[in-house]
Amino acid sequence: MRNNLFPVAKEGWNYIGYAFAAFIFFAIVDLNFFQFLSFFLIVFFVYVYRNPERQMPMFQENSVVSPVDGVVLSIEELVDSEFAYKIEIDSSYLDVAILRVPMNSFVEEIRVTHGAKLSGFDPLSHKINENAQIVFQDKASNKVKVIHRLKQSFDAIHIDVMKSQNLSQASRYGVMINGTTTICLPHNFRLNITLGNQLIGSETLLGYFS
Length: 210
Known about the structure:
The protein is α+β, with helices and mostly antiparallel strands and 210 residues long. The protein is 18% helix and 33% strand.
């Protein structure tokens, strides 16, 4: 995934291929409505799996950037916890689905749990929806925990990293279409965002370790 420089993420190639095959078939049998529907699906899949190049701003070495595109839903201060802040970000079908590494780090922990794909408004969604939890740790032992959780989506969460793998800030590590992301940040972190901010993966600065 980190080396996938195609304009469309490889996770979407099968969907696009099936939609294109259906388009050709319906064109041959002259079913105009289904031909139009197939063409719409091709455009839809190309859009949701788009894989744009991003300009990486020159932030300091101890910076943390957003791993996803989306809107900040909540910022919560945690008490009696390993972490000081919990940020929740909502990503829709309109946002780029590519997941990007928040800082120069290695994967300290990774856990993917398959499950349901309930609406984010369902109170059970936080308990039983498919999710992926990753803890990134830098060379100064600063940790950032990222939890990706699906909402109603036609595809699963794709994570393409392994435990102990070294990663560069802003590199690609997966795909999530229509989900929420929770980011837990430690006590020595200086937050640079506010509620309602529109975030851009790898380009929006979340803040710095002090």
